[in-house]
Amino acid sequence: MGVMVSNNQERNSELNRRIAADLRQKAQTSDSGKMRSANDAVEDYVAGTKRTGRFTWVWIILIVLAILSVIFMFFG
């Protein structure tokens, strides 16, 4: 059992080393070493999403009504 734990720790430390090296490389090569602002990161995230649909409020009301019905069913 001690051998399994030791083997897992060696794999984890190797994985941590590889991840750290990869992150260092990305930090050095991204934008020629310039620091990106938080707004840039938010814009990158938002670019991959889509807008809320027209009927989102209907889903919200249905979810609230479902929760209320469950509450009244058990406690009402």
SSE inventory with pairings:
Layout: H1 2-29, H2 38-47, H3 56-75
Describe this structure as you would to a colleague.
The chain is an all-alpha fold and 76 residues long. Helix content is 76%, strand content 0%. The protein contains three helices and no strands. The termini are far apart. The relative contact order is 0.05.
> What composes the largest sheet?
none
Query: What structural class is derived from the secondary structure elements?
Result: mainly alpha
Q: What is the gyration radius calculated from CA atoms?
A: 24 Å
List low-pLDDT spans. Answer: none
Strand residue percentage: under 5%
Shape: flat
**Terminal CA distance:** 54 Å
Number of separate helices: 3
Give me the count of strands. Answer: 0
Q: Helix and strand string, N-terminal first?
A: HHH
Instruction: Tell me, rounded to a whole number, the average pLDDT.
Output: 78
Q: Which range best describes the helical content: under 10%, 10-25%, 25-40%, 40-55%, 55-70% or over 70%?
A: over 70%
